[in-house]
């Protein structure tokens, strides 16, 4: 059995990750590829419980505690969902993964990069994404989209603009530092324009005609 490919979508608030994950998954399935669509935090039964702990109680976790909870959820997500799916030959498309920890807990909340790198080596190890699509929009544009979605403002949406600008800068720095894994996608266009750019990146990097 040929191992599947692992794709992650990353970006700040309202960049369009969820919508573009669903569109990409539909495009891959349309050409006959078996795909598992997933997300972080969460994506497996126990990791979804950790998601609830992180997001549903309005708690202000200490940055390191939050990084550790995301790491625990990710360890479960990998064991319960991602690695078995890839081993079965399915592709996996995840709405957020380990770059979210670098951006939010690292650049956003000040956890040292070395601490996060150590955690990543322990938890993710060799199971790094084959391709990471970083959806790039100015912070104000993403925040306006997220607020327009009408689900109420979450803890991060309520942070000041400079927090969101740090997230964006962090994602852009990751894309620059790891060009073999990452593609920076201009996500300021309409849904269709961004979906076309996403499919083009997957075609070019992973050699599948979409
Ligand atoms: N987090 C963390 O801190 N550390 C970690 O390691 C991980 C996560 C893994 C998860 O929240 C939170 O966990 C997240 C980071 C933190 N912080 N927050 N908030 P979540 O899972 O509940 O949601 P999210 O991942 O933050 O979603 P988002 O960033 O707010 O949205 P999005 O997925 O990028 O966007 P969307 O839902 O696809 O689209 C938002 C709206 O914009 C929607 O109405 C769309 O129709 C619209 N949209 C999207 N694209 C376009 C375009 N191109 N034009 C116009 N309108 C558009």
From TrEMBL:
Protein EC: 2.7.4.9
Catalytic activity: dTMP + ATP = dTDP + ADP
Source taxon at top rank: Bacteria
Keyword Amino-acid biosynthesis in annotation: no
Thymidylate kinase-like domain ranges (all copies): 9-196
Secretion signal, residue range per the UniProt entry: none
Keywords on record: ATP-binding, Kinase, Nucleotide biosynthesis, Nucleotide-binding, Transferase
Keyword Kinase assigned: yes
InterPro entries: P-loop_NTPase, Thymidylate_kin-like_dom, Thymidylate_kin_CS, Thymidylate_kinase
Molecular function as annotated in GO: ATP binding; dTMP kinase activity
Gene Ontology biological process terms in this record: dTDP biosynthetic process; dTTP biosynthetic process; dUDP biosynthetic process
Residue numbers binding ATP: 11-18
GO cellular component terms, semicolon-separated: cytosol
Listed NCBIfam families: DTMP_kinase
Role this protein plays: Phosphorylation of dTMP to form dTDP in both de novo and salvage pathways of dTTP synthesis.
Similarity comment text for this entry: Belongs to the thymidylate kinase family.
UniProt-recorded name of the protein: Thymidylate kinase
Originating species: Rhodovibrio salinarum
